[in-house]
Design goal:
By secondary structure, this protein is of the alpha/beta class. The chain is 20% helix and 36% strand. It has 4 helices and 27 strands. The termini are far apart.
Length: 445
């Protein structure tokens, strides 16, 4: 009996065990926990990497915006302080050089990607620490305080374009101060911009020029005053190659300084309408003895002055050129009362040039009463590259010309009125490509 009972009990227990085992084998509750447990590190790493990659992308975008703005600012500055300007702008965007892991580099290379001249390159870099992305084995490319980090950088390149034209340029090849104003309370250069390749100083009045630029120090010239501006080059000296041969020989009649002196010959006296003369070489002093009209002409005066004598020289398409030799006995300037009322040609070799001193001349070239004796009503360029000029009058446009005037000198002193009412609003139509300056940054990469 006892054996049968035990056998039965064992059989029932075995049956129950097998039944429970089958139930257990078929039960899937909690099975996903095993899979999750196995994949959790990968999931955490992937999510972390995605989150950090999103942050990196946003951080890089912010850096790129800062680099772009800084590059434009550096190019617009265009002076010796360009690097400080670029870094200051980057700091305004939250990327201050030397703070934490931030590094801002500003350079002015001779060329850069997309840029062949006047290049300004900004590089901003930052090391960001790694967090959950390390779970998947991403170790970055830098170390910060012993922790893995990733370096993010943004690069931007800008160049500059000239922002505005000048109507008064002092080349200052002599080394003298380019622009000097002695009070000149009535001076009016509204709509005009000035440039000195050395210093500018204006006492008592800022000239009312829109922009006053100086390579050295600007002390009071212009409504907007800029110092440390890059020098401008002289694009007009090459026009001397258009000068015709001097056919005068040794004959250069001069106006007599005394009544007993030898008078000028009739060929050196002008009055009336001469029409179109092409290129006319005149020898020695030339004097108006009456109102004179001279159109479509290049009048080259060799070793002599243009004495208006109280009359008016009027011309359309007229260029007056002073050339000759550096002999102390000759002057190469306009003089006398009256008016010079000329509009430069709008095409050809002398396009936009109303009055031109040969850049080879270095003596007998200074003008003491520009715009006043005679009065200047001129459309175009007046080029006096080695001349010390005292500007005391008012320049208006030619009666037959556009609103365009540019005065290029070695140095100028502005007294009295010193006004320019023929500024640069129509110089393109007048055929003159003015000297340009200032700077406006432009992204190229």
């Amino acid at each position: 009996m006892r054996r049968k009972f035990c056998t039965k009990y064992v059989m029932e227990a075995g049956f129950k065990f097998r039944s429970r085992l089958r139930v257990f084998a078929g039960n899937q509750d909690g099975a996903s926990l095993v899979v999750i447990g196995l994949t959790m590190p990968v999931l955490i790493g992937a999510v972390g990497l995605a989150a950090e990659a999103g942050y990196w992308r946003q951080h890089h975008r912010d850096m790129q915006n800062a680099a772009d703005a800084a590059a434009i600012a550096a190019a617009t500055n265009g002076a010796a302080s360009y690097a400080a300007e670029g870094k200051a702008v980057a700091a305004q965007y939250g990327f201050q050089d030397g703070t934490a892991q931030i590094k801002v580099t500003v350079t002015n290379p001779p060329n850069a990607p997309g840029c062949t001249a006047n290049c300004y390159q900004i590089t901003i870099s930052d090391n960001v620490p790694l967090l959950l992305s390390q779970v998947v084995g991403f170790k970055g490319n830098a170390t910060v305080n012993g922790q893995a980090a990733s370096t993010i950088s943004a690069v931007s390149v800008a160049t500059y374009t000239n922002a505005y034209s000048y109507c008064l340029v002092a080349l200052a090849g002599s080394g003298k101060q380019g622009i000097l104003s002695n009070g000149a309370p009535k001076t009016n250069m509204a709509g005009c911009n000035t440039m000195s390749n050395t210093d500018s100083t204006c006492h008592g009045h800022n000239l009312n020029a829109t922009f006053g630029d100086a390579h050295g120090t600007n002390n009071g010239c212009g409504n907007t005053q800029k110092s440390n501006t890059p020098t401008v080059s002289d694009p007009y000296s090459q026009l001397a190659s258009n000068l015709p041969a001097n056919t005068c020989g040794a004959l250069y009649p001069q106006e007599p300084t005394k009544k007993s002196g030898v008078p000028l010959p009739p060929t050196n006296k002008w009055q009336g309408n001469y029409g179109d003369m092409g290129v006319k070489v005149a020898c020695g002093d030339q004097q108006l003895t009456g109102n004179t009209t001279l159109n479509n002409t290049v009048l080259v005066i060799e070793n002599g002055v243009l004495d208006t004598g109280g009359f008016t020289l009027q011309g359309s398409g007229l260029t007056v050129v002073f050339s000759g030799t550096n002999n102390g006995g000759y002057q190469h300037i306009p003089t006398g009362g009256g008016t010079i009322d000329i509009a430069a040609p709008t095409s050809g070799n002398w396009s936009g040039v109303a009055m031109y001193q040969d850049p080879a001349l270095t003596s007998g070239i200074d003008i003491s009463a520009a715009g006043n004796s005679p009065t200047w009503n001129i459309t175009g360029l007046v080029y006096l590259p080695h001349s010390s000029v005292t500007f005391s009058g008012a320049v208006s446009k030619a009666s037959q010309g556009q609103t365009c005037f540019e005065l290029v000198v070695d140095n100028v002193t502005i007294n009295g009125t010193g006004s320019i009412f023929a500024n640069d609003t129509q110089c393109a139509t007048a055929g003159l490509n003015q000297i340009k300056g200032g700077s406006r940054g432009k992204l190229v990469n």
